[in-house]
């Protein structure tokens, strides 16, 4: 897939004065629930109403969606509010039903993007369509798999494309339900700057208090829009209750978020600087995370040495590490002096950690 300006046409045609806002419940629950949320959203910045009709659950036994019946509710919400509609499709039959019910935007879920077979089935079912198709990142952190899905649609002559960043699952649970791994969408953006990129802070966060900051980071990184799960009674939502916010909160959030307008030299300079600074912030976060993980391994080594009664400092090993890192540093244009400085500091911290384990 080459980088084609045509990928942005659908977004440009919307002529929005702000980034695209897609909002609505995780799941369509009842007709009145969906209509009520749609009416609460229609006077906010949200131009697209989202609602899951078929819900892919990681484990069975959770609410699996109302099914095709919900498509009628989406259609009614569109008639009453004038909002565009979007839902997730996970097979050719879903596509057929969604098209029959005039859904405007189809999204491909994270559990679908992982499977080239299903992606191909859906791309074939949509061949040549003018509908907008948004492709969520796969659950695992694999840029090629994500881009492969985009390419399958592009090759099937589906040109109104975009991607949604919803984070990546990890075995170890941390702050986020799905780790953002910002570097992956940043790489994608560098490769395909004209492919619209939308942030799904809800599935990254898993909890509503993190949503605002995630959106701000996304906007600072030049994302084209956000998709936020929204419900009038978030705590009692039938799925993803902890991460949904009310339409009122969403409306306030879009007022508080700093949206960067690209106009004039001065503003453009500031925007570019801001984007680069946000990229540096992402890298710095990764550096600290990696250093922390490295020290945890040092702690384990400390434990082993204690058991075997081996001394902490092993000069030969340390010289080997240093030599290897100086060579690797050269490849990345990092001076020997710099590598020596940071590795001495890292080594010292490592020794301190081991000492703590051994001596207590
Ligand atoms: C959703 O948007 O409700 C959803 C199921 O998302 P994901 O595919 O990102 O898990
Ligand atoms: Mn959800």
From TrEMBL:
Keywords: Transferase. Its EC number is 5.4.99.5. GO terms for molecular function: chorismate mutase activity; transferase activity. Residues 267-358 form the Chorismate mutase domain. GO terms for biological process: chorismate metabolic process. It comes from the Bacteria. It is an enzyme of class 5 (isomerase). InterPro entries: Aldolase_TIM (IPR013785), Chorismate_II_sf (IPR036263), Class-I_DAHP_synthase (IPR052899), CM_dom_sf (IPR036979), CM_II_prokaryot (IPR002701), DAHP1/KDSA (IPR006218). This is chorismate mutase. The lineage of its organism: Bacteria, Pseudomonadati, Bacteroidota, Flavobacteriia, Flavobacteriales.
